[in-house]
Design a protein that fits this description.
Blueprint: E1 3-14, E2 17-28, E3 31-36, H1 43-51, E4 58-63, E5 69-72, H2 86-91, H3 102-114, H4 130-142, E6 148-152, H5 160-175, E7 179-183, H6 187-190, E8 195-198
Parallel strand pairs: 3-7, 3-8, 5-6, 6-7
Antiparallel strand pairs: 1-2, 1-4
Bound molecules: adenosine-5'-triphosphate and magnesium ion.
Magnesium ion binds next to helix 1.
């Protein structure tokens, strides 16, 4: 199996307090990996290290330069201050240093339909319910067509039907060759993954 993203012997500290010790992760093409563990065990921290938004205290994260990584963080409250509509927020996922083409707009529309937010396209993020907001951020993440998806409790705010749709989208991404790394407290959801990394014990 080819690893798209690997982390070896990762350790991390916040202001000297150890959070992760000697963690190893291999995100392989066409596979899903669950990251489990209790609150505060370091799941979000691990995803931030894999995405490169935090630097490890020890160990290293490696990925080939052509591998694109999409991160859906657990905490995204800061963006509510921006005057973005739902459609604009999803489109951001396609801004790869160029103007959006017709195909980009079609991909944005398709994901908004699948996540049932098409009718909310002109609303501001701060005018949405928690689950509608989460659907918007999921659409922004999935529209990116990355090789690696790092998803931090992606369905925690979703109703059962929408959770099922997200699981379908995850399965499609994996079939298409992507690696999905999914932090979750939901056993059923973690069971979708072929492998798991359990933190905090
Ligand atoms: N910015 C920060 N500064 C200091 N400590 C932090 C910071 N962010 C997280 N921590 C601490 O690091 C530990 C791991 O936090 P993290 O958010 O990675 O856990 P988690 O497994 O994602 O938890 P949850 O299930 O609640 O999302 C916790 O003890 C937390 O209090
Ligand atoms: Mg977390």
């Amino acid at each position: 199996m080819s690893a798209l993203l690997t982390a070896e012997n990762l350790s991390f500290r916040y202001a000297g307090t150890p959070v992760l010790q000697d963690v190893n992760v291999r995100a392989e093409a066409a596979s899903m990996l669950a990251v489990t563990g209790p609150n505060g065990s370091g799941k979000s921290t691990l995803l931030h290290l894999l995405a490169g938004v935090e630097k490890p205290w020890a160990g290293h994260v490696s990925r080939a330069p052509e591998v694109r990584v999409a991160l859906l963080p657990q905490r995204t409250g800061d963006i509510d201050a921006l005057p973005l509509t739902v459609t604009e927020c999803v489109r951001i996922g396609r801004f790869a240093r160029r103007r959006l083409t017709r195909a980009d707009h079609a991909a944005v529309h398709d994901l908004m339909e699948r996540l049932e937010i098409a009718h909310l396209g002109r609303r501001r993020l701060r005018e949405l319910s928690g689950g509608q907001r989460q659907r918007t951020l999921l659409a922004q993440t999935f529209v990116q067509e990355a090789e690696v998806y790092l998803l931090d409790e992606p369905t925690a705010a979703l109703d059962t039907a929408t959770r099922g749709r997200v699981h379908e989208l995850l399965t499609e991404k994996v079939r298409g060759g992507a690696a999905v790394v999914l932090a979750s407290h939901d056993r059923e959801e973690s069971a979708l993954a072929g492998r798991a990394v359990t933190l905090g014990r």
